[in-house]
Amino acid sequence: MEYAKLGIANCYAWQLAKANSLAEKEGFAKFISVQNHYNLLFREEEREMAALCAEDNIAMTPYSALASGRLSRKPGETSKRLAEDSYAKLKYDGMAAEDEKIILRVAELADKYDASMTEISLAWLLTKVTAPVAGATKLHHIEGAAKATELKLTDEDVDYLEAPYVPHPLVGVMAQNTKGAKEDNQVWMKNAPKD
């Protein structure tokens, strides 16, 4: 019997393992992909999720591939999204000083390879995952994403980009995916009608 192919998002590795164990026990379709928050500035998925996915042949298709634009611009450069996206600010502003070191290295490698920062950031991500989710609002965003598939970073480049990373607190949906956060006012609930 052939089952549907299922994906899951914003879960912990233990939740994915538990769900797939239950699916196997009950004869249900198992999850074959996971879409979580993962990029050069937020690598917490490397703690457990990446290993689980590699072990169980589960595809990682992360969102926020460019950290809401932070990995596509040098520090100090701005965009409408960087200025106005309050949810992205919640996710990234708390570690901006630490993340700037990584962003500067992305810019440095972009110069080295005569590439955009987008291409460098996505090329790094493609060394780690099956397929990142990268949003686009302009043609050059799509072109940069396509060029990233042709750019091959060396092991030294990858190590150089990763070296300044420090552990980050969980933010966004994952920080809210706990029993303890059940009663918290979630960011997506700001304008939700009250019962």
Overall description:
With 195 residues, this protein is mainly α. The protein has a single domain (6-165), classed as NADP-dependent oxidoreductase domain (TIM Barrel, Alpha-Beta Barrel), CATH 3.20.20. The chain has helices at residues 13-26, 49-56, 80-84, 86-92, 96-113, 117-126, 139-148, 155-162, 172-175; strands at 6-9, 31-35, 59-60. It has a 3-stranded parallel sheet, with helices on one face. Helix 5 (96-113) packs antiparallel against helix 8 (155-162). The radius of gyration is 18 Å and the shape is globular.
| Low-confidence segments | 191-195
Number of separate structural domains:
1
The protein's oligomeric status is single chain
CATH superfamily assignment? NADP-dependent oxidoreductase domain
What fraction of residues sit in β-strands?
Answer: 5-15%
Order of helices and strands: EHEHEHHHHHHH
- Principal-axis shape: globular
Count the beta strands. Answer: 3
Cα-atom radius of gyration: 18 Å
Q: What's the overall average pLDDT, rounded?
A: 87
What is the CATH architecture assignment? Alpha-Beta Barrel
CATH class: Alpha Beta
Structural class: mainly alpha
Could you estimate the helical fraction of the residues in percent? 40-55%
Distance between the termini: 43 Å
